[in-house]
Amino acid sequence: MRLATWNVNSIRSRLDRVLDWLQRAEVDVLAMQETKCADEQFPTMPFFELGYEVAHCGFNQWNGVAIASRVGLDDIEVGFDGQPTWSSKPELEAAAEARALGATCGGVRVWSLYVPNGRALGDPHYRYKLDWLAALRDTAEGWLRTDPSAPIALVGDWNIAPTDEDVWSVEYYQGCTHVSEPERKAFDAIVDAQFTDVVRPFTPGPGVYTYWDYTQLAFPKRRGMRIDFILASPALADRVTDAQIVRDERKGKAPSDHAPVLVDVRDACI
Fold first, then answer.
1. Annotated binding residue at 159?
2. 114 has catalytic annotation
3. Is 258 assigned a ligand-binding role in the annotation?
4. How does residue 109 score in pLDDT terms, banded at 50, 70 and 90?
5. Which of 14, 110, 205, 206 could anchor a disulfide with 165, C-beta 3.0 to 4.6 Å?
6. What value does the mean pLDDT take over residues 193-218?
7. For 108-239, where are the E strands, in sequence order?
8. Are 231 and 266 in contact (CB under 8 A)?
9. What is the tens place of the pLDDT at every residue in 63-86?
10. What is the pLDDT of residues 166-179, one digit of tens each?
11. At residue 269, does pLDDT exceed 80?
């Protein structure tokens, strides 16, 4: 099975690119983030015509997560247990945002995740981000405690660069979100809960990024960040045979500011 994740930065703006890449790359399961549409606006039919079932969670023009699969799409779950709520306005009741969607695809439990940005170190959104990650860690650890052999993939835009190698300039990001010690510790806590970054062994070294800002010629100047990851449970990590960051998809006309990340997973032993 070929499993991929991609922050598409508006599926309606990027639909043709996504569909074209799905076919060229022969992707079986694609987790998408930042779809930027409500459920009724998601372009399900073009995926269906290519043989993909789709699950989507979106409430408005912000956030949004989806999973497209041609190897089955079962046990769909919107949000995870304990997922924190958020409200940007005091007069509005806090609610769970469209940031987490799970489904079983080809026997693998796939979670498409769009971790909160955090905005700034002193912003309430930063605390929300840390709480969100802590809740995810606790819930995911519980899944493995219940079934240590469960094949689970936590994939998506984590909005964290876990090491200094994951940013083009440590000095440039000094005092910013994405690289702060609490965020990195939150990411490491999920790794410590036995979810392995299965892409890094195949794409080692500094200068390997998944995101480049649209401004200041960041992409041609190679000023990027590595913030999109596929973290696998032990049973799934053992089955990964290859991984890629598809940098070329950041090129061309009207690209997303993120590149797709994919892994090849061999069939489970019977």
1. yes
2. yes
3. yes
4. very high
5. 206
6. 97
7. 108-114, 152-157, 196-197, 211-212, 224-225, 228-232
8. no
9. 999 999 999 999 999 999 999 999
10. 999 999 999 999 99
11. no
Indicate if the pLDDT at residue 270 is higher than 60.
no
The H or E element that residue 227 is part of is: none
Residue 174 is inside which H or E element, if any? none
Cα of 206 vs its chain's centroid, Å? 21
pTM above 0.85, yes or no: yes
Active-site pick, 56, 209, 211, 258? 258
Choose, from 28, 52, 56, 114, the residue flagged as catalytic. Answer: 114
Which member of 28, 157, 166, 228 is catalytic? 157
Q: How far lies 180's CA from each of 112, 177, 198, 230, in Å?
A: 23, 6, 23, 21
Q: How confident is the model at residue 89 (pLDDT cuts 50, 70, 90)?
A: confident
183 within 8 A of 165, measured Cβ to Cβ? no
What residues pair up with 67 in beta bridges, in sequence order? 31, 55
Check if the beta carbon of residue 127 is closer than 8 Å to that of residue 78: no
In this prediction, residue 91 carries a pLDDT of 86
257 is in an annotated binding site: yes
Nearest CA to 112 out of 78, 68, 65 is that of: 65
User: Is 178 assigned a ligand-binding role in the annotation?
Assistant: no
Is 56 marked as a binding-site residue?
A: no
Instruction: Tell me the backbone φ, ψ of residue 227, rounded to 5 degrees.
Output: -130, 0
**Where do the domains of the chain lie, and which CATH numbers do they carry?**
2-265 (3.60.10.10)
258 assigned to active site: yes
